[in-house]
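Thread: Newbie trying to understand structure tokens

Hi all, I'm a second-year student working on a class project, and my supervisor (Dr. K.) asked me to get a predicted structure for one chain before our next meeting. I've only ever worked with sequences, so writing a 3D structure as a token string is new to me. If someone could post the tokens and maybe explain what I'm looking at, I'd be very grateful. Here's the chain:
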Amino acid sequence: MGNATTLFVKIKSSIHKMSCWALSLGMGWVLVMMFLTTLDVGGRYFFSSPIPGAIEMSEFMLAIFGVLGIAYTHGAGANVKVTMLTGKLPVRGASLLELITGVLSFQIVAMLVWYGVIMGMEEFRNGTTTDTLAIPVYPLHLLLSMGAFLLALEILMTIVSAATAMITGTLAQDEN
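---
Reply by user tm_fold:
Sure, no problem. This is what the structure looks like when written as tokens:
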């Protein structure tokens, strides 16, 4: 059991590092978005000349930030949880509920990954671009898939932890 636990911890750590990398990339996009918005507002206010396409770019950058940060949020346990029921249950009961919600969440996120790739390939094939700046749309769909894939991996780690806790009746070390 020790080797399996060590392997699980290494895999979980690797997935979390990838999620941190994606979050850092997303935070970089937020900085660029803030700089762009500041320049756009300043140009509009002081020179009556806004930056063409700034709103369109800000929308994309905000979406990129959200998608790239969601896996880290789940892995760090920073998402909102209501534990009125699960806090009163024994470890096995709470773990069973977490296992069920994890499996359902995994299915939804896996569909998001799959359809994001499908949509990205279709947008690439069709040559779809944005209206103002003519930026190709397919990279956004592929980034959505990448962020959802990382979230799916984080959810998979949650499922394994919940299943282990349900079987053993104790929480893992990092969950206490």
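A couple of things are worth pointing out once you decode it. Residues 116 and 145 are 5 Å apart (CA to CA). Helices lie at 2-47, 54-75, 91-126, 138-168. Feel free to ask follow-ups in this thread.
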